[in-house]
Write a structure and sequence with these properties.
about 500 residues; alpha+beta; six-stranded antiparallel β-sheet
Length: about 500
């Protein structure tokens, strides 16, 4: 697999909120740019850097950004595709962190709509590209506020009790529940209303060979003086009818350079997706322990395959050999790491900037480092924020910070009666579980933050998101990441929960 990054400078054009799909051809090439902005980035930050607006987090400057919500913002990128890529089996365009309700064009072809910022838009675009020539990607974005009109017809937003009846202050715009983006940007009890808008993740093209290793999931079991590592390798073969034969090798290398491996040969490769199971044993393993309980030993994991002579390599990553368990026997709620009970010491993690598109990996790693220096061994990633940058989980793996991980739902009933909403919630959950399931730091998946408690206190008898937290998510976690415990909400447990 070869990659071409489309990050860095993009042209940004401002337009009326009503400018929609019919305007795509105009903005593709003809419209002059109004700004140049970074990707990953946020149009609010681009306006600051251009001198159009002041820093929003000084005083009440955030109020000067309200008009950004009433406009549409068009991101444009011109690039030249390597000529050699025309021989690829497929070329995927991936855009992460589209914030939010994005429409995407490539060379005048409308690719589709993305309704969530919590998983990437991915599409095979080989037939729409011009190798060796200029190509143009165009993305229409808004803060999502124009969708609030749809929310006004939703009974939940009409029947939610008043602040006096509820007994606590409303967290931001109540219509935020319709938008699959970080909820806190609409205002919270600790954050101003500063609605984000931009491409807040990486944009890249991937040239795929006739076969590619797509995914890898690992599961550890510990016995006396040894660890058994079970792996499932996902391999995709892009031919329509032809089969092939493959050899697959899994290896773990410790920090001293000692290597452990497993190999399977003469495997049948069918068109489409194939799954291969491998198992290896690591005698006297160096275990990964939380901060303060031991060292954070990380093995380097590699998977290689040969498919009819084609050499494939999956990106190497670091992996901690450890187990986690939730003990919720009567009268208990505790975690065991490597079979040992652990006293959790930590805090709540929220995005460290109102404009999360401008948060750097360096800033995130520094903050996690400060938590470790303060003797934290756990951070709870809050459900009103976002699934974090890779740098967050890298730092937690390296420093022994366990992560209690909420799915993105906090302090409000979600409109799960809507089919499109359930679909988006499911797609983002599946993507993020697969993305994070091999992390040593991952302690628990939690369905939401305080939703059941809020519904109970507010007199809402039936949470419309109940099916998400008590059926959909447990099923996904069990199927995709059975080694990580699941808990439906917090607080939860006992009568009245």
């Amino acid at each position: 697999m070869e990659k071409l990054s489309l990050n860095s400078s993009w042209e940004i054009m401002e337009a009326p909120l009503q400018a929609g799909l019919e305007e795509g051809e105009t903005y593709l090439v003809a419209k002059e740019k109004d700004l140049v902005g970074d990707v990953p980035g946020d149009v609010n930050d681009s306006l600051v850097k251009s001198g159009c607006l002041p820093e929003p987090l000084v005083g009440t400057n955030f109020e000067k950004f309200r008009w950004v919500q009433e406009r549409s913002w068009w991101y444009r990128k011109r690039f030249v595709l390597p000529e050699a890529w025309q021989n690829s089996a497929a070329i995927e365009l991936s855009l992460a962190g589209l914030d939010v309700h994005a429409d995407i064009w490539l060379n005048g072809c409308y690719l589709g709509h993305q309704a969530s910022s919590f998983y990437p838009f991915v599409q095979d675009v080989k037939a729409k590209l011009f190798p060796g020539q200029e190509n143009v990607v165009l993305v229409r974005l808004t803060t999502g506020r124009e969708r609030f009109a749809e929310a006004n017809d939703f009974s939940l937003t009409k029947t939610v009790p008043t602040e006096a009846e509820r007994g606590y202050q409303e967290r931001g715009e109540k219509e935020r529940i319709f938008l699959r983006k970080p909820a806190y940007v609409w205002g919270w009890d600790w954050a101003p209303q500063l609605a984000t808008c931009g491409i807040t993740g990486d944009v890249e093209l991937k040239a795929l060979a006739e076969s590619e290793i797509r995914d890898l999931v690992l599961n550890t079991t510990l016995a006396e003086n040894e660890a058994k590592i079970k792996a499932v390798v996902e391999l995709e073969h892009f031919t329509r009818f032809d089969s092939a034969r493959a050899t697959v090798i899994l290896s773990l290398t410790d920090e001293a350079g000692k290597r452990f491996s497993a190999k399977k040969q003469d495997l049948f490769v069918a068109s489409g997706l194939n799954y291969y199971e491998l198992e290896l044993t690591v005698p006297e393993p160096e275990l990964w322990w939380p901060n303060g309980s031991g060292s954070q030993h990380l093995y380097t994991v590699q998977v290689e395959a040969t498919v009819d002579g084609l050499q494939l390599t999956y990106p190497a990553f670091r992996y901690g050999i450890r187990t986690v368990q939730l003990d919720n026997q009567p009268g208990r709620f505790r975690f065991l790491v490597n079979g040992q009970p652990l006293f959790l010491k930590g805090g709540n993690w929220v995005p460290p900037d109102s404009l999360y598109g401008r948060i750097t990996s360096e800033k995130v790693a520094h903050l996690v480092g400060e938590a470790a220096e303060a003797n934290f061994n756990c951070l709870r990633l809050w459900g009103g924020g976002r699934f974090e940058l890779d740098a967050f989980y890298d730092a937690c793996d390296e420093l022994g910070i366990l992560v209690w991980h909420d799915f993105m739902s906090a302090c409000a009933p979600l409109p799960a009666h809507l089919e499109w909403f359930r679909r988006e919630f499911s797609l983002e959950a599946e993507f993020q579980i697969k993305r994070l399931r091999n992390r040593a730091c991952l302690l628990l998946w939690c369905g939401n933050n305080e939703v059941a408690d809020m519904c109970h206190d507010s007199g809402i008898n039936a949470d419309p998101g109940w099916e998400l937290y008590h059926r959909l998510l447990p099923r996904l976690v069990r199927a995709l990441s059975p080694q990580i415990p699941y808990w439906p909400t917090s607080p939860y447990g006992g009568k009245g929960s």
